[in-house]
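Re: that backbone. Tokens:
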């Protein structure tokens, strides 16, 4: 059992390579990424919400990141990093959520899809899809959630994937297909029912659907708290979409298990990046309160403000400890053993980061809720994080079940 009660884990020290990469990532952030944000924002503002082209500055950053060796760090087989070693690097990318994860080819949903292809893809699937994804030349989408059913319970998914000779025929409506609006999005991993009569966790399968397959329609893009992401979150229709059976990902009926395998690392990576966003919000708080004067003194001299700063530091350090512990157990005992710790982190970290961002908004006054500073965007994204990759309640239900069935340490 992954849970350590009483004893503390002895984390292995980071390798020399991990330390070097951390220094490089810091430099990359300071010298390349943060200075590029203004150009990214200006491009997006001028292009408008319906435009999904990539601001050119992102390709420049991808080139620089690759030259520095900051590329595909999320995947241990590529990066030779443990999850614990990756955690501080991912955290740094969280300082600039629109730019740094993609610049380093560590952005969702591609990372989850790459994990899946790496884990269960055939040699042909890897060559056709994993290689260009690892190369950063295409992007991808993951189409599981459906507007018509409560998709936090993945057994509800209704999309049909029916065998017809050497093909599968797919029919269903998805939404929140992140990344689908991006012109570079070339492929979807689609989850649906291959056998509605099978045992409940064996009904679903995943298939690879090239975006240009007839019958695929990428429709309405939905904003997240009023923010229109460059890569989009779309309603995506699949009508009589035909793909060869060779496009099955993993085994037929294995979709539910594959979704868990995909979401496990994805969750902890979101959590790692969230810590960076929280650090940014705290840094902005500290800077603002020292320069802003109200009632005759800087805000930093007000006891209430100082208390908020301290609360934010505690919240972030607690959250990081939980995240690193989960990452350590992923490394030392595997995804399955770490699943409860990952669930704890997936609930606790976005909540902590939201509190920190909320305090940052408060000390910024009206400015805090505008788009002149990134706080409103960060708040919206992390509020959404309490829903995607499993709403809080689903993780809490899992944790409660584990707690209620655990043998007590002592008779009480
Ligand atoms: C920004 C963003 C990006 C996303 N990207 C993707 C993507 O790329 N691909 C994809 O397939 N999906 C994606 N999603 C969808 C996301 O995974 C779903 O929204 C999420 O799984 C919840 O499903 P639902 O919206 O159908 O909510 P529902 O299943 O309808 O659940 C609604 C609410 O019910 C409550 N609830 C559920 N279960 C329980 C329980 N056991 N106990 C108590 N309360 C409960 C929770 O509060 C939950 O939020 C994204 C969502 C967002 C917001």
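Recovered sequence:
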């Amino acid at each position: 059992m992954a849970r350590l009660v009483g004893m503390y884990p002895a984390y292995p020290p980071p390798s020399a390579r991990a330390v070097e990469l951390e220094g490089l990532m810091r430099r990359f952030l300071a010298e390349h990424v943060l200075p590029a944000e203004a150009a990214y924002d200006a491009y997006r503002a001028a292009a408008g919400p319906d435009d999904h082209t990539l601001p050119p500055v992102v390709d420049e950053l991808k080139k620089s990141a690759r030259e520095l060796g900051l590329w595909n760090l999320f995947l241990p087989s590529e990066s030779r990093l443990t999850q614990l070693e990756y955690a501080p690097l991912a955290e740094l990318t969280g300082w600039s959520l629109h730019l740094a994860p993609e610049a380093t080819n560590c952005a969702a949903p591609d990372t989850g899809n790459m994990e899946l292809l790496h884990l269960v893809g055939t040699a042909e699937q890897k060559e056709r899809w994993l290689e260009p994804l690892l190369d950063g030349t295409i992007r991808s989408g993951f189409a599981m959630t459906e507007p018509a059913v409560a998709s936090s319970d993945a057994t509800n998914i209704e999309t049909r994937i029916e065998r017809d000779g050497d093909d599968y025929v797919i029919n269903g409506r998805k939404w929140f297909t992140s990344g689908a609006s991006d012109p570079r999005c070339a492929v979807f991993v689609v989850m649906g029912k291959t056998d509605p009569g099978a045992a409940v966790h064996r009904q679903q399968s995943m298939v690879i659907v090239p975006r240009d397959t007839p019958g695929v329609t990428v429709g309405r893009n939905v904003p997240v708290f009023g923010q229109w992401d460059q890569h989009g979150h779309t309603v995506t229709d699949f009508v009589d979409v035909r793909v060869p059976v060779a496009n099955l990902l993993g085994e037929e009926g294995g979709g539910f298990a594959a979704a868990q395998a995909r979401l496990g690392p994805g969750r902890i990576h979101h959590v790692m990046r969230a810590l960076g966003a929280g650090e940014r919000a705290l840094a902005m708080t500290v800077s603002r309160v020292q320069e802003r004067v109200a009632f005759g003194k800087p805000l930093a001299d007000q006891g209430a403000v100082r208390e908020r700063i301290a609360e934010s530091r505690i919240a972030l350090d607690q959250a990081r400890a939980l995240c690193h512990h989960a990452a350590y157990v992923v490394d030392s005992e595997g995804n399955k053993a770490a699943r409860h710790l990952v669930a704890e982190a997936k609930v606790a970290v976005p909540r902590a980061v939201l509190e920190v961002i909320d305090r940052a908004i408060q000390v910024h006054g009206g400015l805090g809720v505008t788009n002149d500073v990134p706080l409103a965007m960060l708040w919206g994204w992390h509020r959404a994080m309490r829903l995607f990759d499993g709403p809080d309640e689903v993780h809490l239900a899992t944790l409660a079940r584990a707690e209620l069935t655990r043998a007590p340490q002592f008779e009480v």
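The beta strands are 139-143, 160-164, 167-178, 185-193, 204-210, 216-221, 233-244, 248-249, 293-294, 297-298. The CA atoms of residues 53 and 260 lie 31 Å apart.
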